[in-house]
Fold this protein.
Amino acid sequence: MNRILFTFVVVGIVIVFCDYTVSKQYTRCGLVNELNRKKFNRSFIGVCMIESESAKDTSKVTKKANGSTNYGIFQINDREWCKQGKAGGKCNIKCEDLLDDDINDDANCAKKIQEEIGFKNWDGWVRSCYQKNISYVTNCFK
């Protein structure tokens, strides 16, 4: 009897940890440095947009009024750029993969979006960054 109970407990723990997504909350300069390592051009200055969109939280999920969902640190939308449950969209990525602390796939998709349509895709950029002084980010380039 104890063996069966032990097996159920172990299986339960494995299930819980298999579904666990590790997320990360970046500092401003930590994010600047990470984006630089990802070869983002400094003129991209996505930090302001990221702060406005996700507060630098890689696990953020936002349901939109139009029924779509934004995922991750860049708040990438599932309507066009990723697919729920399987790789797809213009970035050929599973939306849920945008929620972990590895922002390589997020950064690659964000670059694709920025190259295709610019920053206008992000409400946070228009609201908080467009035509605003964001020179504070340069303090991180040391």
Notes: The beta strands are 61-63, 69-71, 76-77.
